[in-house]
Write a structure and sequence with these properties.
alpha/beta, 9 strands, binds xanthosine-5'-monophosphate
């Protein structure tokens, strides 16, 4: 049977109404399609009784808060920006292990930021954009997606004082995009490439520092601008932990290395690498090595498996 986005919307709106009753809920928008669809469904179900927040974690892409707020303003949905930059940077300080980094981001979101928002707003519910692939990869032990709690044996009500509602947990990315279009989200959101919950913290191998974030944010902006016309499933820039010798203006430099990745996939479970023209690759490389401190730019040719999409 083919998927019916309108039927799905009706069903989820009804379930959200029943679950929240006369109470209030909160949700966080990241700018990605999953949290955007949750916001649209939640507002349909609850109207003003859903408070939507954009958490500025210091880990977001360039211009993200303004972009997200303006898209939803056009839809009549108010987005409140919460400054939690110091909390996230503090929690990530000195952390280098990939899963510990995810844990630091998860814990800061759920235990600190959301718990505070729940206390301040009196909400008892958090609407979250977990999708089926997140659950499967977490259960399989491949990767701990940052938005999975019950699958990890965490009871959010007991641990944090609120219930988590996950209206998208039966869908994969293609289903979420179909719902996004059906619920009236603009193409720039409905077709947005996937971006991980831990955001740019997932794009730095090793410790997340402000300098590393500046570097990978600049590279991400270049890669997204240059590769948006490929129509690829996902494209990204990663800052490696290694350094490489280079030479700039006649002087030796021990610089940073950026990897560019661009993949074709249906739902990120398997991926092949996009064939990009040499001209385009050279232009990306030229721009990336203009970022201060970066002197190498590599294009990754590895499919998934054996690689994963991200580097951590
Ligand atoms: P991997 O690296 O596991 O990525 O091949 C598969 C898809 O999941 C995204 N991804 C994440 N999304 N939290 C998320 O919300 C995470 O911790 C996370 N890790 C990977 C990745 O961008 C790709 O689309």
């Amino acid at each position: 049977m083919s998927f019916d986005p309108d039927g799905f919307i009706q069903e989820q709106v009804k379930e959200l109404k029943e679950a929240v009753g006369g109470g209030t809920a909160i949700n966080a928008l990241s700018g990605g399609v999953d949290s955007a669809v949750c916001t649209a469904l939640g507002h349909r179900a609850l109207g003003e009784r859903l408070r939507t927040f954009f958490v500025d974690s210091a880990l977001m892409r360039e211009g993200e808060p303004e972009r997200v707020a303006s898209v939803f303003k056009r839809m009549g949905i108010q987005v409140e920006v919460v400054d939690a930059r110091n909390e996230f940077l503090g929690a990530l300080k000195g952390v280098t292990d990939p899963e510990e980094k995810r844990h630091a981001v998860t814990d800061t979101f759920y235990r600190h930021v959301f718990s505070r928002l729940v206390r301040e707003t009196g909400a008892r519910f958090l609407i979250h954009g977990t999708i089926l692939t997140d659950i499967e990869e977490t259960v399989a032990g491949i990767k701990r997606q940052h938005n999975i709690l019950s699958q990890l044996g965490i009871d959010p009500e007991r641990e944090y004082g609120y219930r988590v509602l996950e209206p998208l947990k039966t869908l994969r990315k293609d289903g979420v995009r179909a719902v996004a279009a059906a619920v009236g989200l603009p193409d720039e959101i409905a077709r947005r490439i996937p971006f991980p919950g831990p955001a740019l913290a997932a794009r730095i191998v090793g410790e997340v520092t402000e300098e590393g974030l500046r570097t990978v944010r600049a590279a991400t902006a270049i890669v997204e601008e240059e590769l948006s016309d490929t129509g690829a499933f996902q494209y990204l820039a990663v800052l490696l932990n290694d350094r490489a010798t280079g030479v700039r203006e006649g002087r030796r430099e021990f610089g940073r290395i950026i990897v560019v990745r661009c993949i074709e996939s249906l739902d990120a479970r398997e991926a092949t690498v996009t064939r990009i023209s040499w001209d385009k690759l050279e232009r990306i490389c030229r721009r990336v090595v203009e970022i201060p401190g970066v002197n190498r730019c590599l294009y990754d040719l590895t499919p998934k498996p054996p690689a994963t999409v991200e580097y951590i």
